[in-house]
Structures are given as structure tokens and as C-alpha cells.
Amino acid sequence: MSLVRLEKINKYYRVGAHSLHVLRDVEMSIDEGEMVSIMGASGSGKSTLLNILGILDAYDGGKYWLGDTLIQHLGERQAAQYRNKFIGFIFQSFNLLPFKTAVENVALPLYYQGVSRRKRNRIAAQYLERVGLLDWADHRPSEMSGGQKQRVAIARALIAKPRLILADEPTGALDSETSHQIMDLLTEIHQTGITLVVVTHEADVAARTQRTIRLRDGKIVDTPVAAAS
Ligand code: ADP
Ligand code: MG
Fold first, then answer.
1. Do 44 and 14 form a contact (C-beta atoms < 8 A)?
2. Whose CA, among 25, 92, 116, 227, lies 20 to 30 Å from 63?
3. Does pLDDT of 115 surpass 50?
4. Distance (Å, whole) CA 17 – CA 2
5. Are 35 and 206 in contact (CB under 8 A)?
6. Would you say the CB of residue 46 lies under 6 angstroms from ligand 1?
7. Taking a C-beta distance cutoff of 8 angstroms, is the pair 71, 65 a contact?
């Protein structure tokens, strides 16, 4: 059963008097439980597509179904509700709050759900333990390595028990050894049944997903199939 279904999605950015056609009739479907990568050159529309999937941005034409909900013309509040309920985000630059500790960063989604401080910090500690960082609970991001910061961000993405995790170049700021470890962790998370979409321009990251969707100039290009000889 598909968790994500896009039908002829189009997206334009207005830049001054001009209009930039960034996504062109994008059609795709991602099954519940899949781990998929989206690849494409810089500027091909990967982040725009991911932001639409994450209900962080609206689209101009087509239809986006998330489960059996049509994600269209949502108000800010309703969009935030769906986002908080279904979706976890991981970014290249981690997007941690600098003046909060690791445990407070992980607990943040529960703060927005109105969970008490004591309870959310207890749950956040469990998620930090799961990503191997319990000992770092009281440290701030500036005291951590890139790989550690990404683990904190992953724990934060997991804490609200999302069905879908969207990762925009999650290894883009990491060395190859650390990238490998982060992909190990994402693979583990995928194995618990969470659907994962990973935007990357690194072939070895894409190779660790089950399927790669390729974008060129805002259009999906058919995955090249090895020619049978
Ligand atoms: P990618 O993530 O593949 O590098 P993006 O989705 O970020 O690509 O961008 C696709 C195109 O849209 C690029 O040409 C980019 O310059 C343009 N773009 C992205 N965001 C905006 C914006 N907020 N306003 C105007 N143009 C944008
Ligand atoms: Mg991008």
C-alpha cells in the first residue's frame, strides 16, 4: 500500500516578474515501509520535492496523497498537525538549537505536543540511548562532532514516532566513514518499519536504499535499466 502518492505535481517559484518551473508533472509512489533515495544534480528540485512531501511547502498543481489524506490547500495549523503526527525530518546542517542540550533538542517535538518537561526528557533520553549518545545528553551541539549532531537530529526525528522520515542530504556534511555509520543507523530505523526518503547526490548513499528516483530539471527521469546483452 502506498504511503506517498504524487500525481502530476507542478511547482513554480516566482522570482521578481519571472516564474521558475521547478517541478514538472512529478509522479511517484512510495510504499509504506520502503527506503527510497532521490538523486539529481544541484538545482534539480530535490529539496523542493522533499519540502512538499514534508508539508513544509505548497505545490501549484497536481495531487499529493499521504496515506488516504489529500494534502492540498491546508491551513498552517492543519499542515503542522499532519507534519507533527506523521513526519520526521533530518537535514544536512542538523538544524539543532544551539543553546539547548542534546536531550532538550531531542525532546522538542514532545514540547510542541504539550508533554511535561520531566516526561519528555525521560523519553528523549531513551531515544538518545538508541542512537548511542546517552552520555552526551547534557552537551550542547557546539561540543559535538558532525556525526554526533546528526545522531541527535535522528533521535529528534524519531521521538514523535513518525510513519515517514524525510532526510535532505543527511550525510552531506560528514566524512565518508561517518556517513557510513549514519546510513547504518538509518537502515536500522528503516528495519523497524518506518518509511524513509533520503535525498542525496552521493551514489554510495543511494546504493544503500532499495530504490532510487532520479530528478533532472524538475522532471523524474526513468531509472536506467542495465541493458540485457
Ligand atoms: P536541489 O535541492 O536539487 O539542489 P532545489 O529544490 O533547492 O534543488 O531548487 C530547485 C530550483 O529552484 C533551483 O533553481 C533553485 O534555485 C530554485 N529555488 C529553490 N528555492 C527557491 C525559492 N525559495 N525561491 C526561488 N527559487 C528557488
Ligand atoms: Mg537541496
1. no
2. 92
3. yes
4. 38
5. no
6. yes
7. yes
Measured CA to CA, the distance from residue 128 to residue 126 in angstroms comes to 5
Give this prediction's pTM.
0.94
Return d(Cα 121, Cα 54) in angstroms, integer: 25
Q: What cell was used for 74? A: 491546508
Q: Residue 146 is which amino acid?
A: G
Residue in 10, 18, 21, 22 to alter for ligand 1 test, most ligand atoms within 8 A of Cβ: 22
Which cell goes with 12?
513554480
**Phi, psi (5° rounding) for residue 35?**
-125, 110
CATH class of the region 2-100+149-222: alpha beta
pLDDT at residue 226 above 60?
A: no
Closest to 49 in 3D by CA, of 221, 215, 222: 215
Alpha-carbon distance of 188 to 185, in angstroms, equals 5
All cell numbers assigned to 204: 554510495
How many Å lie between the centroid of ligand 2 and the Cα of residue 24?
Answer: 17
Q: Are 87 and 37 in contact, with CB atoms under 8 Å apart?
A: no
For the chain, where are the E strands, in sequence order?
2-15, 18-31, 35-39, 61-66, 69-70, 87-91, 164-168, 195-199, 211-216, 219-221
Q: Characterize 94-105 residue by residue with b for buried, 16 or more Cβ atoms within 10 angstroms of its Cβ, and e for exposed.
A: bebeeeebbbbb
Which residues, in sequence order, are CB contacts of 31 under 8 Å at separation 6+? Answer: 1, 2, 3, 195
β-bridge partners, 165: 88, 196
Average pLDDT on 16-42 reads: 96
Task: Give SS3 for 194.
Answer: coil
In this predicted structure, the answer to whether residue 16 has a pLDDT above a threshold of 80 is: yes
